[in-house]
Amino acid sequence: MSDSLRDSRCDIGFIGAGVMGKNLILNLADNGYRVCAFDLDQGRLNALLEQDAKERGDQPARVETCNSYTELLAKVKAPHLIILSVPAGAPVDDVCNKLLDAGLKADDIVVDTGNSLWTDSVERAKRYEGKLIFFTTAVSGGEVGARFGPSLMPSGDRYAWSRIEPVWHAIAAKVDPASGQPLERFEPGNPVTEGEPCAAYIGPIGSGHYVKMVHNGIEYADMQMICEAYHVMRSALDMSPADIAAVFREWNKGPLNSYLISISAEVLATVDAETEQPLVDVILDRAGQKGTGLWTAVSSLEVGCPAPSIAEAVYARSLSTRKVLRTRAAKKLQGPAVEPIEPAKRAEAIAELHDALYCAKICVYAQGFDLMKLAAREQGWELNFAEIARIWRAGCIIRAVFLQSISDAYERDVKLSNLLLDDFFAEQIAEHQGNWRRAVADATLKGIPVPALSSALSYYDAFRMESLPANLLQGQRDFFGAHTFSRVDRPEQQKYHVQWSEPGRPVVEI
């Protein structure tokens, strides 16, 4: 192969030019990488080339396309770096196998950026060992994040990371190191090059997708709690969507500042062009989900880590899909008689909701980080929680000013056992819990469901209790199933059983 031909080859091969793939490709191109793209849908490739031409103007083409896996490998420099943006599951294996058939070598890297289940990634790394280097990078930020700077959670082979690191640092979202605020620029061809990149090596294969899974579980709970605050304002405070949008915009100036609060305000302020009604009123209240929140809830049960608010957010979405049944129930089931709130007390109620959302948010993150900590211990991963919080400060869906405080907490104590035990967060909840309790109680008395806000409160109260009623529960288990129990006045490893059917019910050591 001639030097001129070798020099003309692309830096990166990219498979999958859907919404996320196309935007990641253009992001790579903005940052100086020549990309060769392949997709089974020629229409997607045409759209990619058209978008590249539109954005680059009279500058040389930055993106090429090809018609086969063999052509892709021929057009990309060796050793190959191939990035996948394809649906999770069987399509990932299908692409890997076709690349091997096309001539992929053992030192070529394949990076899965889809929403794969973390255990699948672990199995793939084993399956392809010695054939290719299978690496993963979980991506958060949606299509805008992919285009102008996502949050990236890479995991896998350390050698592969050394080759991928400069690429991911270039295209990731950036944060001002002094203020912790995102450095955002939504201009094609003019990427943000300064600041701290929101991309950091997470650990061994699977750990990055696990962290992204928990990110999505937190996202589920955060969204649900915002929706619950909206519901209370709408139903109990008789506020219009525009009024609530104004409240959210005000909240976004303080400790609740976040992407999700910001977009919630935008949704509520939007008017449907066809009906001239608030857009939120013409959206069917049936929520969808892609499974990552469910995976998080299931993992919390498997690991034995309580994450009730994440689970309640998943249940809330499931209950929303029972629209027909709920419509029937609304006509038959009675709730409490609700008197309209006095306008003079509205501001007080809004302040209570603000503090409830803030305190519950702390508890949700405590649940998520605790889950990552226990999973890491089980898997032998060494996760850097301060760094994880830092790379979530920009680019991702749960980006928020709040994450700087979480990063600071883990910087103060790298062995912090639970976020609630950090002095700053303990003080924040102590200061604001009165309003949190009043908001949950008022919503309950008015018959407005707040499952995420209330479960977070129950989590906090259970966590701070030195003694829980599990002693009675263990007594119950021993009574019907002889499951035994430990005593408070003996070493815990010693087990006891009551001979319940014997006179005097003697306690015997097992």
Characterization of this structure:
The protein has helices spanning 3-8, 19-30, 42-56, 69-75, 90-102, 118-127, 142-148, 158-171, 207-235, 241-251, 259-269, 279-282, 292-303, 308-320, 323-332, 343-379, 385-391, 402-412, 423-445, 451-463, 470-481; strands at residues 12-15, 35-38, 63-65, 81-84, 109-112, 133-140, 151-155, 174-175, 182-183, 196-197, 496-498, 507-509. The protein is of the alpha/beta class and 510 residues long. The chain is globular, with a radius of gyration of 26 Å. The model is unreliable at 1-6 (pLDDT under 50).
Summarize the structure.
Helix content is 54%, strand content 9%. The chain has 21 helices and twelve strands. The chain is globular.
**Tally of discrete structural domains:** 3
Q: Specify the helix fraction band.
A: 40-55%
CATH level 3 topology of the largest domain: N-(1-d-carboxylethyl)-l-norvaline Dehydrogenase, domain 2
Number of strands: 12
Q: Please mark out the parts with pLDDT under 50 across 5 or more consecutive residues, or reply none.
A: 1-6
Largest sheet report: 7 strands, mixed
Radius of gyration: 26 Å
